[in-house]
């Protein structure tokens, strides 16, 4: 793929605010042909679409659709609309995600917490990708990209975010498997990038504290790193680099030693105690 997304069709979920909006702004700034924004927050989505439309000055078609990714039927309906109007996207960024409270798992509600978290964070990216993959694969002479925004929480357990960690672990497993499947099947035009950042200063994790050696990440730094990795077709982005260190220590150390050294000493297991952030 080129060094920019100029001329590409881009679809971003969770695009009304936070990181999703930042990815959309980057796409417009680089001259994407069309940017489709999906989010369930109608008012925030309208504001973002208006601002992006003004920034595009007619060079980029900006489309917005109110989509509740917790409803699998809604995904199919809106994906069909995108295919009819634009065809399959060149770049799909599965960015939408939710996190609920900072309670222990047995204090949560299976419907409002566990089911909703698994649907939006784990199932929705699979359903969205499945809707567009046949078209992306068929356009074999054009580079395609799928970016799945997971989390460092999916690489190791963390108290007070059990369902969230489970959803991101599922996303990581599926995302990397999809990458290997595409390569094995010879569909080399479609590259998958899995992203596993620690906490990002978007408001989603307000009140959470960055563990030792893993400070709260600045959004613009994350966007730039993910964007460049996506264009190059890199398989994995770990931010900060100490996420890789924690994975290595988890594999090397006995579990109870890891709990003391990393979970306790690095402060990972205490990072959600003060969480007060929004639920999306």
TrEMBL record:
TM region positions: none
Name recorded for this polypeptide: SDR family NAD(P)-dependent oxidoreductase
InterPro entries: NAD(P)-bd_dom_sf (IPR036291), Sc_DH/Rdtase_CS (IPR020904), SDR_fam (IPR002347)
Assigned protein family: Belongs to the short-chain dehydrogenases/reductases (SDR) family.
Gene Ontology molecular function: oxidoreductase activity, acting on the CH-OH group of donors, NAD or NADP as acceptor
One Pfam family hit: adh_short
Keyword Cytoplasm set for record: no
SUPFAM superfamilies: NAD(P)-binding Rossmann-fold domains
Keywords from the UniProt entry: Oxidoreductase
Keyword Kinase: no
């Amino acid at each position: 793929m080129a060094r920019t997304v100029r001329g590409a069709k881009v679809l971003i979920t969770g695009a009304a605010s936070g990181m999703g909006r930042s990815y959309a702004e980057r796409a417009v700034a680089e001259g994407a042909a069309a940017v489709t924004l999906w989010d369930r927050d109608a008012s925030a989505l309208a504001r973002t679409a208006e601002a992006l439309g003004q920034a595009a000055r007619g060079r980029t078609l900006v489309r917005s659709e109110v989509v509740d990714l917790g409803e699998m039927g809604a995904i199919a309906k809106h994906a069909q609309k995108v295919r009819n109007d634009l065809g399959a996207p060149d770049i799909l960024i599965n960015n939408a995600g939710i996190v609920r409270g900072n309670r222990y798992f047995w204090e949560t509600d299976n419907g409002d917490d566990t089911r909703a978290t698994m649907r939006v964070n784990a199932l929705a990216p699979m359903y969205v990708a499945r809707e567009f993959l046949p078209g992306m694969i068929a356009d074999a002479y054009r580079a395609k990209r799928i970016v799945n925004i997971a989390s460092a929480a999916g690489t190791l357990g963390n108290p007070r975010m059990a369902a969230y960690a489970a959803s991101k672990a599922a996303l990581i497993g599926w995302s990397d498997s999809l990458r290997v499947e595409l390569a094995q099947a010879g569909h080399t035009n479609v590259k998958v990038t899995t992203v596993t950042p620690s906490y990002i200063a978007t408001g989603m994790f307000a009140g959470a504290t960055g563990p030792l050696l893993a400070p709260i990440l600045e959004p613009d730094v994350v966007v730039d790193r993910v964007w460049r990795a996506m264009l190059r077709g890199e398989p994995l982005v770990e931010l900060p680099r100490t996420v890789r260190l924690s994975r290595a220590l988890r594999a090397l150390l006995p579990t109870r030693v890891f709990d003391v050294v990393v979970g306790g000493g690095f402060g990972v297991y205490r990072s959600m105690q003060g969480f007060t952030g929004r639920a999306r």
